[in-house]
Design a protein that fits this description.
With 205 residues, this protein is mainly alpha-helical. It is 40% helix and 9% strand. It has a three-stranded antiparallel β-sheet with strand order 3-5-4, covered by helices on one side. Strands 1-2 form a two-stranded antiparallel ribbon. Helix 4 crosses helix 7.
């Protein structure tokens, strides 16, 4: 079986250990599993408000219930088993949280959700890549990827912002672009139709 890394490019110090098995419906993690991968998943679930105790790295009944609640909320098969679809969704939210934190920490919570919503709006647009990974890692799409701030540890509010955006809150009004006017280096962005301003960011399409 071929292993595929769901994020594609990782920094081990950040503990990006979520893997999937290509073309396999078998679970990667279930009751009795243990190790750093389980602990990292528990940490993500904790920041998303599903895991309510200290991550231990052991996949027991508490973890299974947290996974089940997560799956139910995100429209996945709620069996409590961390398989391909569940790990992909967790990884998408983690990537978004890193982007939100790197791009908009210091902004209001509404501004953080708006940045997360722009990512999802791009995924839905035919003008951008059709996956969260593709959108976030598109060349020069996000300053945080270029300057390394993407790899900072996101705070819980950045995970919650990603979660709220997935649940349909879009403070950006459907924007596929945002920028800070004071930091613009390419005036092309001013050609986009402005929708609204939230904090220091202008949102446009």
């Amino acid at each position: 079986m071929k292993f595929v890394h769901v994020l594609g490019s990782f920094v081990l110090a950040s503990c990006f250990y979520l893997f999937i098995l290509e073309d396999s419906a078998s679970a990667l993690m279930d009751t009795g599993a243990n190790g750093s991968e389980v602990e990292h998943m528990q940490s993500i679930l904790e920041k998303l408000d599903y895991f309510h105790t200290t991550p231990t790295g052991y996949y027991g009944s508490i973890t299974k219930e947290a996974v089940r609640e997560f799956q139910a909320d995100f429209g996945l098969r709620a069996d409590g088993i961390a398989g391909t679809n569940t790990l992909n969704m967790l990884s998408n939210l983690e990537m978004m949280a890193h982007t939100v934190h790197g791009e908009s920490r210091g902004e209001t919570y509404e501004g953080k959700v708006a940045v997360a919503a722009v990512i999802l709006n791009r995924v839905q647009s035919t003008s951008f890549p059709s996956s969260t990974y593709g959108v976030i890692y598109q060349q020069n799409a996000f300053t945080a990827l270029n300057d390394g701030q993407f790899w900072l540890t996101p705070d819980p509010s950045s995970y919650q912002a990603a979660k709220d955006a997935y649940f349909g809150w879009d403070p950006s009004g459907g924007a596929t672009y945002y920028y800070n006017p004071s930091g613009v280096t390419d005036e092309w962005i001013f050609s986009r139709d402005v929708i609204k301003t939230i904090g220091k960011h202008v949102y446009a399409r």
